[in-house]
Amino acid sequence: MTDDQIICKTIKFVKSTLKGAEGGHDWFHIHRVLKTSQTIAKDEKVDPLVVSLGALLHDIADSKFHNGDETVGPEMAREFLKNIGVSEDIVNHVVLIIQNISFKGGNVEQKFTSPELDVIQDADRLDAIGAIGIARCFNYGGFKNRALYDPEIVPNLYMTKEEYKNSTAPTINHFYEKLLLLKDRMNTKTGKRMAEDRHSFMESFLKQFYKEWEGRH
Fold it and tell me: How far apart are CA 216 and CA 210, in angstroms?
């Protein structure tokens, strides 16, 4: 099977699996991460097949939607890739990417690195900031029935992994607990450059948000 055929089969699998998913973690999120990964990868020395498969499968079963179980996605990806005949070394690499890509709070160290993970992680983080990042953030907050903002609930910048996973804080707090931190956590030159503009947009949004919250001009 050619690389193109493997990617086509994976796209079909992901579209089917994520049908009806929450709007911030649906096929369109995957598609954006795939395209951004391919853009970043042009300036990096990476295996393009690993990048494409990692991007396509990175959120195949996000733990947020599986009672916090972080094993579902990696195992689902492993089973699918093995069934379509992908080589074991590529399968193992993709599984490690899925296990290590996500932001788990400010104090959790990543256990695995690779140039391909760097690329996909940057693309995934870029989709969490800027205009789309803001839209996804409030979409998920609405999905979880969270308050938009509560001035009395201060953002927690020192959460443990479990506190981060179980947080029910207002949506605005998530900007400080994750989104505004991502610019300085980009791995690649291209990712860092792309993050600057999106970060600035979020800062402008927050200024406007607080102005409107207080009823000011």
Answer: 9
Instruction: Give the whole-angstrom CA distance, residue 120 versus residue 16.
Output: 22
**Tokens 């080589």, residue located:** 87
**From the centroid of its chain, how far is CA 97?**
12
The DSSP symbol for 192 reads H
Cα–Cα dist 10/171, whole Å: 33
The set of residues, in sequence order, having a beta carbon less than 8 Å from that of 70 and lying 6+ positions away, is 63, 99
SS3 9: helix
Higher pLDDT, 114 or 68: 114
Q: Catalogue the long-range contacts made by 69-74 (C-beta closer than 8 Å, 24 or more residues apart).
A: 70/99, 73/98, 74/98, 74/99
In whole angstroms, what separates CA 49 from the centre of its chain? 19
Torsions phi, psi for 182 (to 5 deg): -70, -30
Residue-wise burial string across 1-29, b where 16 or more C-beta atoms lie within 10 A, e elsewhere: eeeeebbebbbebbeeebeebbebbbbeb
Q: What is the pLDDT of residues 167-201, one digit of tens each?
A: 889 999 999 999 999 999 999 999 999 999 999 99
Which has the closest alpha carbon to 53: 19, 23, 89? 89
